[in-house]
Specification:
alpha+beta, Dna Ligase, domain 1, D-amino Acid Aminotransferase, Chain A, domain 1, 6-stranded mixed sheet, 12 helices, 36% helix, binds guanosine-5'-diphosphate, binds manganese (II) ion
């Protein structure tokens, strides 16, 4: 179960992670009774990440602007979800932004500390600089400091960031969480730190163990689901668009960033799915390979999909494992003549964006089954768009 930002921040406040003064807004007119001085930030309270990119985070200077912005944000779906509440928060002048997360890794079943010196909305850069430390023994502050040092932090900033990581870890253990994420952790010019965004995923099996969490879960369940996409994409945070390029990426932020690039590149995004199998993603309950195969299947079955674009930066799986799953998927479609076959001219082409250690091998394997592998997202997007535009846009008989 994912908490909303304002709920996560209540937990942060209790455990001593610095957060700004804020106020929950249930209706635009609540802003007439705002206790926080302007300028303030209004933030859509939906479960998806990438709200900033989607227009769900607005800076306002006065009551009139705030009410107008609130009306817009209340009606803005983000990955299919419309907010029931907004969060109004004091504005913070961050000189730099960091990314921090503590996640229970589903493959090693150990907590992993994650941090990037480049936090914020550009998920690509966040992931590119991501550092991690596996907590393989009893936890000690040493692990937190090691991460902060790996992130290139020094002096008092290194100290204050380590303290926050320790508290995030405490929260993870105390409340049986799968994920605690702060992105961004704002750093002011005076060197002070502030959690500007927060994400918490409670382990579904642990909900019953904590009365306060069970209460929250009940409240959330009673909320009328306000989705404007079909329910069967629910677990995928899916967006169902009508374009030719199906997107499968790791984490809501990366899905949105990929969608954005495809649109800017002149392509039309189709069904977009969140694999939820990367570092810092809310983990899905299925294993990586099952999940990837399911996602490929959903996209391949969609009639409008001509190209499947996979953006798997930050995956827990290695490039080799990814390549294996894709190869298996294609082989299954070779022999299976009941459903859409790979030799059918309607079968989508695959473009895969991969990065990682055993990339060479993965590339070889995938190229042999006619899958395009690229390391740069820009190139992958350009190729996907080109394939939908070229006269022989669909795979011809091999
Ligand atoms: P997300 O896009 O869903 O992750 O939403 P965030 O809460 O992270 O907001 C998006 C971006 O808005 C952040 O990366 C920050 O750069 C900025 N932001 C959010 N809250 C504040 C704030 O209180 N003060 C300032 N200056 N920037 C903020
Ligand atoms: Mn964020």
């Amino acid at each position: 179960m994912d908490l909303l930002e304002y709920q996560a921040k209540e937990w942060f406040r209790k455990i001593g992670i610095p957060v700004l003064p804020s106020q929950r807004i249930d209706h635009p007119t609540d802003l007439k009774r705002l206790k926080i001085p302007y300028p303030v930030v209004l933030k859509s309270q939906v479960h998806a990440g990438g709200r900033g990119l989607a227009g769900g985070v607005r800076f306002v200077e006065n009551t009139i602007d705030a009410i107008a912005a609130a009306q817009t944000v209340f009606n803005l779906p983000i990955l299919g979800e419309v907010p029931e509440v907004l969060l109004a928060e004091a504005r913070y002048n961050a000189e730099r932004e960091l990314y921090l997360a503590v996640v229970l890794d589903s493959t090693v079943r150990r907590p992993v500390l994650l941090g990037s010196p480049l936090g914020g909305m550009d998920i690509e850069s966040v992931l590119e600089k991501m550092q991690y430390v596996i907590v393989d023994q009893d936890f000690s502050p040493f692990y937190a400091r090691r991460l902060a040092l790996k992130m290139g932090l020094q002096g008092s900033l290194m100290q204050s960031v380590s303290t926050i990581i320790e508290k995030m870890y405490q929260l993870l253990v105390q409340q049986d969480l799968d994920l605690v994420e702060i992105n961004p952790l704002g750093v002011s010019s005076a060197g002070q730190v502030m959690a500007l965004d927060g994400k918490v995923t409670v382990n579904d099996r642990a909900v019953g163990k904590h009365p306060d969490i069970a209460l929250l879960a009940k409240k959330m369940a009673s909320r009328s689901p306000k989705r404007d996409t079909p329910g069967d994409l629910g677990d995928w945070n899916g967006v169902e668009l009508q374009g030719k390029i199906g997107i499968l990426a790791n984490g809501a932020g990366l899905v949105l960033a990929t969608l954005d690039l495809v649109t800017h590149g002149g392509g039309k995004p189709g069904v977009c799915l969140n694999l939820k199998q990367g570092y810092g993603c809310e983990p899905s309950t299925t294993a990586f390979s099952d999940r990837l195969e399911q996602g490929l299947e959903i996209l391949a079955q969609d009639k409008s999909t001509q190209v499947i674009l996979l953006n798997l930066l930050g995956s827990v799986a290695t490039s080799g494992e990814v390549a294996q799953v894709i190869t298996n998927f294609l082989q299954r479609h070779e022999t299976d003549n009941s459903s859409k076959s790979r030799y059918d001219s309607n079968f989508p082409r695959l473009v895969v964006r991969l990065a990682g250690s055993d990339l060479g091998l993965a590339k070889k394997l995938l190229t042999s089954v006619k899958v395009t592998v690229l390391e740069s997202l820009d190139e992958a997007v350009t190729e996907a768009v080109r394939l939908t535009k070229s006269p022989v846009s669909k795979k011809s008989k091999v």
